[in-house]
Amino acid sequence: MSLAQAPAETIVRPGESIQRALDSAGAGATVRLTEGTYAEHLLIRHSGVTLVGDGAERTVLVPGGEAPAGIPVLTDATTEVSSGIVIHAEGVTGITLRGLTVQGFTGAGVYAHTTSDLLVEDLVVRDNALWGVYVRESGGVRVLRCTASGSRYGGVALSFCSRSDALIEDNEAFANAFGIFVDNSSFAQVRRNRGHGNAAGVLVLNQAYPGEPPGGATDNLVADNDLYDNGLSAGVEPDGLGAAGPPISGVGVGLIGACRATVVGNRIVDHRPSGPSVIGGAVAMASSTEWGGGEVADNKVLWNRITGNEPLDVDISDNLDRQYFENNLVDRTSPERIEGCSTGGAR
């Protein structure tokens, strides 16, 4: 009987090339980074790779050197930008990223495209210009215990993941346009995250874009999150954060063109816009048909505390009769009376 050979492990130290180690280690390998700062742009080309640092804030990846050949241009970027860790090659699956900081890139901290079985855990993604963790057209995604801050668009974002089967859990997102952005993606669970100081804590969006895959945002779960003081101004230049779509500020949970979402057990408090916003409540539902999306319909809002928000705690602009509310603690809503929203609701 022969024993299966253990996957190879490669140790990389500051001054050595992470990219060289990734390329030579091959599929199924672990590349372990010791404490220190590494100035590189990385492209993961093999399946089953684990890239692990010595801990966030101890192992830090910053821009530097030449980007490896073959890194695709970041989708949606208006100019050529560079990202920190890129997973974008046909058939590459089963990637794990753990225990490091990725900061200061002009694109995304982590950019994953057309992959599956992706685990991103215990990362700090900080001050990356466009996105923190940005995942497109992928499935089987887990983003756990990460801190994402300082991005013009999203801290943690799923985009056009039609069957994401994603778990976004126990993360902290702040100082982004959208703390957690479920963009034309479905079957995601957004659970036990902290979102503060963004323009929107959690935004679920169904919107059509020219040249993009079919959209849709259905069957997403937003549960047990702590969302507070998301009053940053986004979509306004030069005084707001970037050009991340129309003006948004002061949103806890936005469901725009979303269907069959469940928003349950969240604390959504103290939202006050600091600039103009097309969304007028801490919890807001609206159609996106004028942007090529769809109706907001068949959503459930259950057992949430939604208080202390300006100008409204809950704002439903379309299809109130197709939403279900139960036992939510609120102060002010539009329309003024919503069955299942009251001052005697969830505590």
From TrEMBL:
Q: Which UniProt keywords apply?
A: Repeat
Task: Mention any Pfam family matching this sequence.
Answer: Beta_helix
* PANTHER family reported for this sequence: F-BOX ONLY PROTEIN, F-BOX ONLY PROTEIN 10
Protein name per UniProt: Uncharacterized protein
Q: Which organism is it from?
A: Actinoalloteichus hoggarensis
